[in-house]
Amino acid sequence: MGFLGIMGNSFGCSASGERLVSAARDGDLQEAKALLEYNPRLARYSTFGVRNSPLHYSAAQGHHEIVSLLIESGVDINLRNIRGQTALMQACQYGHWEVVQTLILFKANIHRTDYLNGGTALHFAALNGHTRCIRLLLADYIPSAPNFWNMMRGKSTRDSSIPDFDKSALSKFVNQRADGGITALHMSALNGHAESVHLLLDLGASVSEVTVEDGSTIDLIGAGSTPLHYAACGGNAVCCQVLIARGASLTAENANGWTPLMVARSWHRNWIEGILSKRPDGRIKILPSPYLSLPLMSIIRIAREFGWRGTNQSPACIDPCVVCLERRCTVAAEGCNHEFCTRCALYLCSTNSTSTVVPGPPGSIPCPLCRHAIVSFFKIPGMSPIRDLPRTSLSLSLCATCPAVDGSDSTASMATQLCKPDFHCTRVPPLGSSSFRSLSCQRFPSMKLHSMLCMGVPETSPCLIRCCRSGSSLRRSASQRESSTRSCLFAFSPIVDTSNGS
């Protein structure tokens, strides 16, 4: 009888949790606020089966305000679903750069890999060519220095004067491999995302990285394939030209003995055979990527330390931000010293896509007032650092009327627990507390604590990333990921599903 009482409590928690999931998925900010004010622990709720949390749903749908609300309620920003995907991965897959910006500001872990394919958030962004998401993911690696592009191109050696720049760490992350040795550059080249290919190359992606044998359908191209082999299979002429201009080999053979030209012919990409047949006589001039944004590191650091969501109206006696005309100016651009609020400065850096700013260095953004090249921002004197946001305990609570708590074992009590609306719950000590452990040991000596957690409804939504192998996907351990029987990262083009969720 006591067990059924706990199950009734779980059903009640599940009802509130499902309401929060619906609000997160639909973008209902007011509903989400009301539910979290009632019980902040609902932020930890996850659906049964795929184990997607409200944070996953809001990130996948692009509701960045709800993402912020959930994080402030204490949810683990790096929470995984059953496939090992984080909210950052799902936001990158669907190209919701505002969600990515929010998660990066809250210091989400960009190095996490999913259980299914070993891909990072960078792989998810590169798969569908979401270039804004790519540069936001790398904001902490790209210094706000005017000579960054020249350093990456080998035209400058003055990187020793930039303490925030670790070129080897940037290169390691950009060239990180998923299952099968696939890099983000492979995925962008395969799917014909020329802008993403261009940006990744400017950020140190290697044109000579090759895939490895793992028994998946990606071997239709062949193990040992370079990004140019993948670009030839995808058939995008611009991707091929950019890779060749950056030094990709036209004669490199993969494990099948195929060159990029042979791959193009086997996939009937006749329109790029001329590009892959002979290297151009003259040197192709490649301009810097229009998606470089050098001020990102400086403004993100300021936003993390001093806040970025201030909604206070600027007093009439103080000039407001010239972009939004609402908030008080908090940062200024180096050089021209024009002032903006932090939120507008973040927006300028995240949305800019200008390749040249005369006479600014590559990667600078134009000032909206004077067109001066902005390389970095600095805070206006008088700002004070913000304190860390208080995080609510995420331990799930039980209803006080549960038979396990009040000692009642009657059938009427159980019926009341099953039918009683969940918003009358009161909290008891968290699951991890000593008082609850003592209580559970006395009442249920043989029951594991995980059976008391909230239970969700079965979820039948398909995997956000299609795997080429049939059968069910199981969460794998670290030792399994090192095995040679890895599954392929993404379905092989043209089978690759690049449709974006809305």
From TrEMBL:
The keyword Zinc-finger applies. It is an enzyme of class 2 (transferase). Pathway: Protein modification; protein ubiquitination. Gene3D superfamilies: Ankyrin repeat-containing domain, Zinc/RING finger domain, C3HC4 (zinc finger). GO terms for cellular component: nucleus. It catalyses: S-ubiquitinyl-[E2 ubiquitin-conjugating enzyme]-L-cysteine + [acceptor protein]-L-lysine = [E2 ubiquitin-conjugating enzyme]-L-cysteine + N(6)-ubiquitinyl-[acceptor protein]-L-lysine. ANK repeats lie at residues 50-82, 83-115, 117-138, 180-212, 223-255. Its EC number is 2.3.2.27. InterPro entries: Ankyrin-SOCS_Box, Ankyrin_rpt, Ankyrin_rpt-contain_sf, RING_XB3-like, Znf_RING, Znf_RING/FYVE/PHD, Znf_RING_CS. Residues 321-371 form the RING-type domain. Keywords: ANK repeat, Metal-binding, Repeat, Transferase, Ubl conjugation pathway, Zinc, Zinc-finger. PANTHER family: ADA2A-CONTAINING COMPLEX COMPONENT 3, ISOFORM D, ANKYRIN REPEAT PROTEIN. This is RING-type E3 ubiquitin transferase. It comes from Musa balbisiana.
